[in-house]
Structure to design on (446 residues):
Protein backbone atom coordinates (compact mmCIF):
# COMPACT_ATOMS: atom_id res chain seq x y z
CA UNK A 1 0.00 0.00 0.00
CA UNK A 2 2.87 2.37 0.83
CA UNK A 3 4.72 1.64 -2.43
CA UNK A 4 1.52 1.91 -4.46
CA UNK A 5 0.72 5.30 -2.99
CA UNK A 6 4.28 6.55 -3.51
CA UNK A 7 4.05 6.02 -7.26
CA UNK A 8 0.38 6.27 -8.21
CA UNK A 9 0.22 10.00 -7.38
CA UNK A 10 2.85 10.89 -10.00
CA UNK A 11 0.50 10.01 -12.85
CA UNK A 12 -2.19 12.28 -11.41
CA UNK A 13 -0.12 15.48 -11.08
CA UNK A 14 -1.26 17.02 -14.42
CA UNK A 15 -4.91 16.16 -13.61
CA UNK A 16 -4.62 17.57 -10.09
CA UNK A 17 -3.11 20.79 -11.41
CA UNK A 18 -6.14 21.29 -13.67
CA UNK A 19 -8.54 20.44 -10.85
CA UNK A 20 -6.96 22.90 -8.39
CA UNK A 21 -6.09 25.53 -10.99
CA UNK A 22 -2.35 25.56 -10.22
CA UNK A 23 0.85 24.88 -12.19
CA UNK A 24 2.09 21.23 -12.19
CA UNK A 25 5.44 22.19 -10.63
CA UNK A 26 3.68 23.78 -7.65
CA UNK A 27 2.23 20.36 -6.74
CA UNK A 28 5.62 18.89 -5.91
CA UNK A 29 4.73 19.74 -2.29
CA UNK A 30 2.08 16.99 -2.50
CA UNK A 31 4.92 14.50 -2.97
CA UNK A 32 7.56 16.16 -0.78
CA UNK A 33 5.18 16.49 2.20
CA UNK A 34 4.68 12.72 2.17
CA UNK A 35 8.38 11.93 1.89
CA UNK A 36 9.60 14.50 4.43
CA UNK A 37 7.09 13.50 7.12
CA UNK A 38 8.06 9.88 6.49
CA UNK A 39 11.76 10.76 6.87
CA UNK A 40 11.19 12.70 10.11
CA UNK A 41 8.95 10.23 11.90
CA UNK A 42 10.79 7.10 10.85
CA UNK A 43 13.24 7.98 13.65
CA UNK A 44 10.32 7.63 16.10
CA UNK A 45 9.05 4.37 14.63
CA UNK A 46 12.06 2.22 15.51
CA UNK A 47 11.81 3.18 19.17
CA UNK A 48 8.03 2.64 19.19
CA UNK A 49 8.37 -0.82 17.62
CA UNK A 50 10.93 -1.82 20.26
CA UNK A 51 8.90 -0.36 23.10
CA UNK A 52 5.32 -1.36 22.25
CA UNK A 53 5.76 -4.25 19.83
CA UNK A 54 5.83 -4.64 16.06
CA UNK A 55 2.25 -5.85 15.60
CA UNK A 56 0.66 -3.10 17.70
CA UNK A 57 2.55 -0.27 15.98
CA UNK A 58 2.02 -1.72 12.53
CA UNK A 59 -1.73 -2.00 13.09
CA UNK A 60 -1.86 1.61 14.32
CA UNK A 61 0.06 2.75 11.24
CA UNK A 62 -2.27 0.93 8.83
CA UNK A 63 -5.33 2.51 10.44
CA UNK A 64 -3.72 5.97 10.14
CA UNK A 65 -2.68 5.40 6.53
CA UNK A 66 -6.13 4.18 5.49
CA UNK A 67 -7.94 7.06 7.21
CA UNK A 68 -5.60 9.69 5.74
CA UNK A 69 -6.06 8.14 2.27
CA UNK A 70 -9.80 8.78 2.59
CA UNK A 71 -9.13 12.38 3.62
CA UNK A 72 -6.76 12.86 0.65
CA UNK A 73 -9.51 11.62 -1.65
CA UNK A 74 -12.00 14.24 -0.43
CA UNK A 75 -9.51 17.15 -0.45
CA UNK A 76 -10.76 20.30 -2.16
CA UNK A 77 -7.49 22.26 -2.45
CA UNK A 78 -3.78 21.69 -3.00
CA UNK A 79 -2.98 22.82 0.56
CA UNK A 80 -5.54 20.45 2.03
CA UNK A 81 -4.18 17.54 -0.01
CA UNK A 82 -0.61 18.40 1.00
CA UNK A 83 -1.57 18.33 4.69
CA UNK A 84 -3.26 14.94 4.53
CA UNK A 85 -0.37 13.54 2.47
CA UNK A 86 1.89 14.54 5.37
CA UNK A 87 -0.35 12.51 7.71
CA UNK A 88 -0.02 9.61 5.28
CA UNK A 89 3.76 9.96 5.47
CA UNK A 90 3.72 9.76 9.27
CA UNK A 91 1.67 6.56 9.09
CA UNK A 92 4.00 5.10 6.47
CA UNK A 93 6.98 5.88 8.72
CA UNK A 94 5.47 3.72 11.45
CA UNK A 95 5.00 0.82 9.02
CA UNK A 96 8.48 0.75 7.52
CA UNK A 97 10.65 -0.65 10.35
CA UNK A 98 8.49 -3.71 10.99
CA UNK A 99 9.39 -5.83 7.98
CA UNK A 100 13.09 -4.97 8.12
CA UNK A 101 13.40 -5.64 11.85
CA UNK A 102 11.57 -8.96 11.51
CA UNK A 103 14.04 -10.07 8.85
CA UNK A 104 17.12 -8.88 10.72
CA UNK A 105 16.04 -10.67 13.91
CA UNK A 106 15.00 -13.89 12.18
CA UNK A 107 17.57 -14.74 9.49
CA UNK A 108 21.30 -15.41 9.49
CA UNK A 109 23.40 -13.03 7.38
CA UNK A 110 24.01 -15.75 4.79
CA UNK A 111 20.21 -15.83 4.25
CA UNK A 112 19.65 -12.08 4.58
CA UNK A 113 19.75 -11.03 0.91
CA UNK A 114 17.48 -13.87 -0.20
CA UNK A 115 15.01 -13.12 2.61
CA UNK A 116 14.98 -9.40 1.82
CA UNK A 117 14.36 -10.16 -1.86
CA UNK A 118 11.38 -12.37 -1.00
CA UNK A 119 9.87 -9.46 0.96
CA UNK A 120 10.73 -6.81 -1.64
CA UNK A 121 9.26 -8.69 -4.64
CA UNK A 122 5.64 -8.35 -3.39
CA UNK A 123 6.38 -4.72 -2.44
CA UNK A 124 7.37 -4.04 -6.07
CA UNK A 125 3.81 -4.78 -7.10
CA UNK A 126 3.08 -1.21 -5.92
CA UNK A 127 5.44 0.50 -8.39
CA UNK A 128 4.36 -2.02 -11.04
CA UNK A 129 0.68 -1.15 -10.71
CA UNK A 130 0.98 2.45 -9.48
CA UNK A 131 1.69 4.46 -12.65
CA UNK A 132 -0.36 2.24 -14.97
CA UNK A 133 -3.36 1.96 -12.63
CA UNK A 134 -3.05 5.67 -11.82
CA UNK A 135 -3.07 6.54 -15.52
CA UNK A 136 -6.11 4.35 -16.20
CA UNK A 137 -7.98 5.76 -13.19
CA UNK A 138 -7.31 9.31 -14.43
CA UNK A 139 -8.44 8.27 -17.92
CA UNK A 140 -11.68 6.59 -16.78
CA UNK A 141 -12.54 8.28 -13.48
CA UNK A 142 -10.91 11.16 -11.55
CA UNK A 143 -7.82 11.60 -9.36
CA UNK A 144 -9.54 11.15 -5.90
CA UNK A 145 -10.10 7.47 -6.75
CA UNK A 146 -6.34 6.82 -6.57
CA UNK A 147 -6.51 7.46 -2.81
CA UNK A 148 -9.85 5.80 -2.11
CA UNK A 149 -8.65 2.41 -3.41
CA UNK A 150 -6.43 2.22 -0.29
CA UNK A 151 -9.48 1.69 1.94
CA UNK A 152 -10.21 -1.97 1.01
CA UNK A 153 -6.45 -2.67 0.88
CA UNK A 154 -6.00 -1.26 4.40
CA UNK A 155 -8.83 -3.39 5.77
CA UNK A 156 -7.28 -6.52 4.28
CA UNK A 157 -3.86 -5.63 5.72
CA UNK A 158 -5.29 -5.27 9.22
CA UNK A 159 -6.72 -8.80 9.02
CA UNK A 160 -3.36 -10.32 8.02
CA UNK A 161 -1.34 -8.26 10.51
CA UNK A 162 -3.45 -9.28 13.50
CA UNK A 163 -3.35 -12.91 12.40
CA UNK A 164 0.28 -13.41 11.34
CA UNK A 165 2.68 -10.63 12.40
CA UNK A 166 4.62 -11.45 15.62
CA UNK A 167 4.73 -8.81 18.34
CA UNK A 168 8.50 -8.50 18.88
CA UNK A 169 9.61 -6.17 21.67
CA UNK A 170 12.96 -5.10 23.04
CA UNK A 171 13.84 -6.12 26.60
CA UNK A 172 15.77 -2.87 26.99
CA UNK A 173 13.47 0.04 27.85
CA UNK A 174 15.21 3.09 26.38
CA UNK A 175 13.84 6.59 26.85
CA UNK A 176 13.10 8.48 23.66
CA UNK A 177 15.49 11.27 22.63
CA UNK A 178 13.05 14.16 22.28
CA UNK A 179 15.81 16.79 22.06
CA UNK A 180 17.40 14.94 19.15
CA UNK A 181 14.00 14.47 17.54
CA UNK A 182 13.32 18.23 17.75
CA UNK A 183 16.74 19.17 16.33
CA UNK A 184 16.80 16.58 13.55
CA UNK A 185 13.11 16.57 12.67
CA UNK A 186 12.76 20.34 12.92
CA UNK A 187 15.92 20.98 10.93
CA UNK A 188 15.00 18.45 8.26
CA UNK A 189 11.46 19.74 7.92
CA UNK A 190 12.59 23.37 7.73
CA UNK A 191 15.30 22.56 5.18
CA UNK A 192 12.86 20.73 2.89
CA UNK A 193 10.33 23.55 3.18
CA UNK A 194 12.95 26.15 2.25
CA UNK A 195 14.20 24.07 -0.68
CA UNK A 196 10.62 23.78 -1.86
CA UNK A 197 10.34 27.59 -1.85
CA UNK A 198 13.50 28.27 -3.85
CA UNK A 199 11.72 28.22 -7.22
CA UNK A 200 8.63 29.99 -5.85
CA UNK A 201 8.46 33.46 -7.38
CA UNK A 202 6.45 34.80 -4.42
CA UNK A 203 8.91 33.63 -1.76
CA UNK A 204 11.16 36.14 0.03
CA UNK A 205 14.71 35.14 -0.95
CA UNK A 206 16.23 36.58 2.25
CA UNK A 207 13.88 34.56 4.45
CA UNK A 208 14.58 31.43 2.40
CA UNK A 209 18.35 31.84 2.89
CA UNK A 210 17.83 32.50 6.61
CA UNK A 211 15.63 29.41 6.87
CA UNK A 212 18.22 27.22 5.13
CA UNK A 213 20.99 28.46 7.45
CA UNK A 214 18.78 27.83 10.50
CA UNK A 215 17.99 24.31 9.30
CA UNK A 216 21.67 23.52 8.67
CA UNK A 217 22.59 24.79 12.15
CA UNK A 218 19.85 22.63 13.73
CA UNK A 219 21.07 19.51 11.93
CA UNK A 220 24.70 20.30 12.80
CA UNK A 221 23.64 20.83 16.42
CA UNK A 222 21.90 17.46 16.33
CA UNK A 223 25.09 15.73 15.15
CA UNK A 224 27.17 17.35 17.92
CA UNK A 225 24.50 16.58 20.53
CA UNK A 226 24.24 12.94 19.41
CA UNK A 227 27.89 12.23 20.25
CA UNK A 228 27.21 13.30 23.86
CA UNK A 229 23.72 11.83 24.40
CA UNK A 230 23.43 8.52 26.28
CA UNK A 231 20.63 7.19 24.03
CA UNK A 232 20.76 9.30 20.85
CA UNK A 233 17.97 9.36 18.29
CA UNK A 234 20.43 8.21 15.60
CA UNK A 235 23.64 6.43 16.55
CA UNK A 236 26.59 7.93 14.64
CA UNK A 237 28.88 5.30 16.17
CA UNK A 238 27.59 3.05 13.39
CA UNK A 239 29.68 5.10 10.93
CA UNK A 240 32.79 3.61 12.49
CA UNK A 241 31.81 0.40 10.68
CA UNK A 242 33.37 0.79 7.22
CA UNK A 243 30.79 -1.15 5.18
CA UNK A 244 27.95 0.71 6.89
CA UNK A 245 29.62 4.05 6.22
CA UNK A 246 30.30 3.34 2.53
CA UNK A 247 26.80 1.95 1.97
CA UNK A 248 25.17 5.02 3.49
CA UNK A 249 27.34 7.62 1.77
CA UNK A 250 27.55 5.85 -1.59
CA UNK A 251 23.85 5.11 -1.46
CA UNK A 252 23.19 8.78 -0.72
CA UNK A 253 24.39 9.86 -4.18
CA UNK A 254 22.80 6.89 -5.93
CA UNK A 255 19.40 7.65 -4.43
CA UNK A 256 19.88 11.39 -4.93
CA UNK A 257 20.16 10.90 -8.69
CA UNK A 258 17.62 8.10 -9.03
CA UNK A 259 15.19 9.66 -6.54
CA UNK A 260 14.22 12.33 -9.05
CA UNK A 261 13.05 9.85 -11.70
CA UNK A 262 9.45 9.49 -10.39
CA UNK A 263 9.11 13.26 -10.84
CA UNK A 264 11.07 13.73 -14.10
CA UNK A 265 9.83 10.75 -16.13
CA UNK A 266 6.12 11.81 -16.06
CA UNK A 267 7.27 15.27 -17.25
CA UNK A 268 9.17 13.65 -20.14
CA UNK A 269 6.32 11.36 -21.16
CA UNK A 270 3.31 13.64 -20.66
CA UNK A 271 4.69 17.15 -21.23
CA UNK A 272 7.78 16.49 -23.36
CA UNK A 273 6.40 13.71 -25.58
CA UNK A 274 2.69 14.51 -25.20
CA UNK A 275 1.59 11.02 -24.09
CA UNK A 276 -1.74 10.68 -22.22
CA UNK A 277 -1.55 9.69 -18.54
CA UNK A 278 -2.57 6.05 -19.14
CA UNK A 279 0.12 5.57 -21.80
CA UNK A 280 2.81 7.23 -19.66
CA UNK A 281 1.80 4.97 -16.78
CA UNK A 282 2.00 1.81 -18.87
CA UNK A 283 5.55 2.71 -19.89
CA UNK A 284 6.65 2.18 -16.29
CA UNK A 285 5.42 -1.44 -16.25
CA UNK A 286 8.55 -2.83 -18.01
CA UNK A 287 10.73 -1.10 -15.41
CA UNK A 288 8.86 -2.71 -12.52
CA UNK A 289 8.78 -6.16 -14.18
CA UNK A 290 12.53 -6.00 -14.77
CA UNK A 291 13.06 -4.92 -11.15
CA UNK A 292 11.15 -7.98 -9.93
CA UNK A 293 13.15 -10.28 -12.23
CA UNK A 294 16.46 -8.88 -10.94
CA UNK A 295 15.47 -9.64 -7.34
CA UNK A 296 15.49 -13.31 -8.32
CA UNK A 297 19.00 -13.17 -9.82
CA UNK A 298 20.73 -10.56 -7.64
CA UNK A 299 22.09 -13.24 -5.27
CA UNK A 300 23.69 -15.05 -8.22
CA UNK A 301 25.22 -11.84 -9.60
CA UNK A 302 26.68 -10.88 -6.22
CA UNK A 303 28.01 -14.37 -5.59
CA UNK A 304 29.87 -14.22 -8.91
CA UNK A 305 31.29 -10.68 -8.75
CA UNK A 306 31.05 -9.43 -5.17
CA UNK A 307 29.73 -6.14 -3.87
CA UNK A 308 32.62 -3.91 -4.98
CA UNK A 309 32.62 -4.88 -8.66
CA UNK A 310 28.83 -4.93 -8.92
CA UNK A 311 28.32 -1.52 -7.31
CA UNK A 312 31.00 0.25 -9.37
CA UNK A 313 29.96 -1.24 -12.71
CA UNK A 314 26.23 -1.00 -12.04
CA UNK A 315 26.43 2.67 -10.96
CA UNK A 316 28.26 3.62 -14.16
CA UNK A 317 25.65 1.79 -16.26
CA UNK A 318 22.76 3.54 -14.46
CA UNK A 319 24.38 6.91 -15.20
CA UNK A 320 24.66 6.02 -18.89
CA UNK A 321 20.97 5.04 -18.97
CA UNK A 322 20.02 8.41 -17.46
CA UNK A 323 22.20 10.13 -20.07
CA UNK A 324 20.35 8.14 -22.76
CA UNK A 325 17.00 9.60 -21.62
CA UNK A 326 18.42 13.02 -22.50
CA UNK A 327 18.26 11.93 -26.16
CA UNK A 328 14.67 10.65 -26.09
CA UNK A 329 12.44 12.77 -28.30
CA UNK A 330 9.43 12.67 -30.61
CA UNK A 331 11.37 10.63 -33.15
CA UNK A 332 12.37 7.94 -30.61
CA UNK A 333 10.50 4.69 -31.20
CA UNK A 334 8.24 3.34 -28.48
CA UNK A 335 10.08 0.01 -28.65
CA UNK A 336 13.39 1.69 -27.79
CA UNK A 337 11.81 3.54 -24.84
CA UNK A 338 10.39 0.25 -23.52
CA UNK A 339 13.79 -1.42 -23.91
CA UNK A 340 15.67 1.28 -22.01
CA UNK A 341 12.97 1.17 -19.30
CA UNK A 342 13.67 -2.56 -18.94
CA UNK A 343 17.39 -1.89 -18.55
CA UNK A 344 16.68 0.83 -15.97
CA UNK A 345 14.54 -1.60 -13.97
CA UNK A 346 17.24 -4.28 -13.94
CA UNK A 347 20.04 -1.91 -12.94
CA UNK A 348 18.14 0.12 -10.33
CA UNK A 349 16.82 -3.06 -8.68
CA UNK A 350 20.31 -4.53 -8.44
CA UNK A 351 21.65 -1.24 -7.06
CA UNK A 352 19.09 -1.06 -4.26
CA UNK A 353 19.49 -4.76 -3.42
CA UNK A 354 23.25 -4.25 -3.01
CA UNK A 355 23.05 -1.06 -0.95
CA UNK A 356 20.19 -2.20 1.28
CA UNK A 357 21.87 -5.50 2.17
CA UNK A 358 25.53 -4.40 2.40
CA UNK A 359 24.60 -1.82 5.04
CA UNK A 360 23.87 -4.70 7.49
CA UNK A 361 26.82 -6.93 6.59
CA UNK A 362 28.87 -6.08 9.71
CA UNK A 363 26.02 -5.06 12.02
CA UNK A 364 25.56 -7.03 15.26
CA UNK A 365 22.10 -8.19 16.40
CA UNK A 366 21.97 -5.62 19.21
CA UNK A 367 22.67 -2.86 16.64
CA UNK A 368 19.98 -3.96 14.19
CA UNK A 369 17.26 -1.55 15.35
CA UNK A 370 19.63 1.45 15.36
CA UNK A 371 21.08 0.49 11.97
CA UNK A 372 17.62 0.00 10.47
CA UNK A 373 16.46 3.40 11.77
CA UNK A 374 19.59 5.18 10.54
CA UNK A 375 19.57 3.61 7.07
CA UNK A 376 15.82 4.16 6.64
CA UNK A 377 16.12 7.81 7.72
CA UNK A 378 18.98 8.51 5.33
CA UNK A 379 17.17 6.66 2.54
CA UNK A 380 14.02 8.75 2.87
CA UNK A 381 15.99 11.97 3.36
CA UNK A 382 17.92 11.31 0.16
CA UNK A 383 14.86 10.41 -1.87
CA UNK A 384 13.27 13.67 -0.71
CA UNK A 385 16.36 15.65 -1.69
CA UNK A 386 16.36 13.85 -5.04
CA UNK A 387 12.76 14.83 -5.63
CA UNK A 388 13.42 18.44 -4.61
CA UNK A 389 16.64 18.62 -6.64
CA UNK A 390 14.93 17.26 -9.76
CA UNK A 391 12.16 19.85 -9.45
CA UNK A 392 14.76 22.61 -9.04
CA UNK A 393 16.73 21.31 -12.03
CA UNK A 394 13.65 21.26 -14.25
CA UNK A 395 12.60 24.70 -12.99
CA UNK A 396 16.11 26.02 -13.72
CA UNK A 397 16.12 24.76 -17.30
CA UNK A 398 12.52 25.86 -17.88
CA UNK A 399 13.03 29.33 -16.39
CA UNK A 400 13.64 31.16 -19.68
CA UNK A 401 11.68 28.79 -21.91
CA UNK A 402 8.47 29.85 -23.64
CA UNK A 403 5.84 27.17 -22.79
CA UNK A 404 4.44 27.56 -26.29
CA UNK A 405 7.75 26.42 -27.80
CA UNK A 406 7.51 22.66 -27.35
CA UNK A 407 11.04 21.87 -28.58
CA UNK A 408 12.59 24.15 -25.96
CA UNK A 409 10.44 22.61 -23.21
CA UNK A 410 11.47 19.10 -24.24
CA UNK A 411 15.14 20.08 -24.32
CA UNK A 412 14.91 21.55 -20.81
CA UNK A 413 13.46 18.27 -19.52
CA UNK A 414 16.19 16.29 -21.33
CA UNK A 415 18.94 18.37 -19.69
CA UNK A 416 17.60 17.42 -16.25
CA UNK A 417 18.45 13.77 -16.99
CA UNK A 418 22.07 14.74 -17.62
CA UNK A 419 22.18 16.42 -14.21
CA UNK A 420 20.64 13.36 -12.48
CA UNK A 421 23.04 11.00 -14.25
CA UNK A 422 26.05 13.07 -13.19
CA UNK A 423 24.93 13.03 -9.54
CA UNK A 424 24.48 9.24 -9.64
CA UNK A 425 27.97 8.78 -11.09
CA UNK A 426 29.47 10.44 -8.00
CA UNK A 427 28.57 7.43 -5.84
CA UNK A 428 31.32 5.36 -7.51
CA UNK A 429 33.87 7.49 -5.64
CA UNK A 430 32.69 5.82 -2.41
CA UNK A 431 32.34 2.29 -3.76
CA UNK A 432 36.00 2.22 -4.79
CA UNK A 433 36.84 2.13 -1.06
CA UNK A 434 35.17 -1.26 -0.66
CA UNK A 435 37.38 -4.33 -0.31
CA UNK A 436 36.86 -7.34 -2.58
CA UNK A 437 35.81 -9.41 0.43
CA UNK A 438 33.32 -6.93 1.89
CA UNK A 439 29.87 -8.42 2.38
CA UNK A 440 30.95 -11.98 1.51
CA UNK A 441 28.94 -13.39 4.42
CA UNK A 442 25.82 -12.07 2.66
CA UNK A 443 26.75 -12.49 -1.01
CA UNK A 444 28.65 -15.78 -0.70
CA UNK A 445 31.34 -14.34 -3.01
CA UNK A 446 34.78 -15.97 -2.60
Amino acid sequence: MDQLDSTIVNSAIPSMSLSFGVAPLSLKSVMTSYIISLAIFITLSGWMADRFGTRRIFSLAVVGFTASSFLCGISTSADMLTFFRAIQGISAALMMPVGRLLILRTFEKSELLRAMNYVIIPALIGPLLGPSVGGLIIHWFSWPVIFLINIPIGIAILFFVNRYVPNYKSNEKKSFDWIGFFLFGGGLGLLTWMLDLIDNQYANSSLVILGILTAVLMIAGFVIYSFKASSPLLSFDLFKIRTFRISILGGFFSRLGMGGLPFVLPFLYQIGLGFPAWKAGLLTVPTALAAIAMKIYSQTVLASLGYKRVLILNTVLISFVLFFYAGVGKETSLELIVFINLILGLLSSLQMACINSLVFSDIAINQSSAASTMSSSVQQLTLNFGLTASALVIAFFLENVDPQLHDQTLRAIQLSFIALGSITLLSTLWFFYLADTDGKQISGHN
About this structure: The mean pLDDT is 82. The longest helix spans residues 285-325. The chain has two domains: 2-167+233-443, 177-232. The radius of gyration is 21 Å.
